[in-house]
Amino acid sequence: MKLIVLVFIGGGIGAIGRELFMQLTPAGFEGFPLDILLANLLACLLLGLAAAVHARGKLSDSQYLFVGTGIMGGLSTFSSFAYGAVVLMSGPAQGTMVAIVYVLVSMALGYLAVLAGQKLGGGRSV
């Protein structure tokens, strides 16, 4: 039960952080969901960092669950990512290309952000 409470509280903190972060992020061009992209990249970076610190034994399992699953789960938003792609895809013909670029950039930069976070944390987590 303690673990569920940690994830619950962490998720709330992450979701509030995401909303504040997205409110402060400037609007993207032509409806491009820059706020969602940046929130997800921040979560990827911080999750990679937390995973590496956890792997080094500097973060307990409970702390990692609170931060990794809870806070980073609340900060990142796959559903908004997918919805943003659908909205872009529903636009004019160039919207389809922008949507494809958005998905590819999100995946590639997300991967690199996790690697960067792991490097910042002192090594790979895996």
Describe this protein's structure.
Helix 1 (2-24) packs antiparallel against helix 2, helix 1 packs parallel to helix 3 (61-75) and helix 2 packs parallel to helix 5 (93-120). The protein is an all-alpha fold. It has one domain (2-120). It has helices at residues 2-24, 34-55, 61-75, 78-89, 93-120. The mean pLDDT is 90. The protein is globular, with a radius of gyration of 16 Å.
- Our measurement of the CA-to-CA distance between the termini, rounded to an integer number of angstroms, reads 27 Å
Overall mean pLDDT score?
90
How many β-strand stretches?
A: 0
Largest sheet: none
Q: Structural class of the helix and strand makeup?
A: mainly alpha
Task: Record keyword descriptors for this entry.
126 residues, 5 helices
What layout of secondary structure does this protein have?
Elements (H helix, E strand, L loop, with lengths): L1 H23 L9 H22 L5 H15 L2 H12 L3 H28 L6
Helix pairs in contact: 1-2, 1-3, 2-3, 2-5, 4-5
TL;DR?
The chain has 126 residues and is mainly α. The protein contains five helices and no strands. The longest helix has 28 residues.
